[in-house]
Design a protein that fits this description.
A hairpin with a 7-residue loop joins strand 2 (about 45) and strand 3 (about 55-60). Strands 1-2-3 form a three-stranded antiparallel beta sheet. It has three helices and three strands, in the order H-H-E-E-E-H. By secondary structure, it is of the alpha+beta class. Helices cover about 40% and strands about 20% of the residues. It has a single domain, classed as Hypothetical protein (Metal Transport, Frataxin, Chain A, 2-Layer Sandwich), CATH 3.30.920.30.
């Protein structure tokens, strides 16, 4: 199992994980085709082509539950939730 597959399994873990780092999440989002832009300060906004919502993450912090949920929704939208 590759690094990103393990991260996807972790994202779908129960209870919802809160120990996912910004760096891991950002690498995953970029690898699936998201673009990233700076919003100001430490905020980074990730957009996936054709997906209506943006995912906002803060550098150098672990993800919050709502951010993990946003990533889950994106993965389900593009069909990667099947890997869980």
């Amino acid at each position: 199992m590759g690094k990103f597959e393990k991260l996807i399994h972790k994202i779908y873990g129960r209870p919802m994980p809160i120990n996912i780092s910004y760096q891991d999440a950002a690498r995953l989002l970029i690898s699936i085709g998201c673009t990233v832009r700076k919003r100001g300060g430490s905020h980074r906004v990730f957009h996936y082509p054709g997906y209506p919502a943006a995912i906002v993450l803060m550098e150098d912090e672990n993800l919050h539950q709502y951010q993990v949920q946003d990533i889950r929704k994106l993965l389900e939208h593009i069909g990667l939730s099947k890997m869980k």
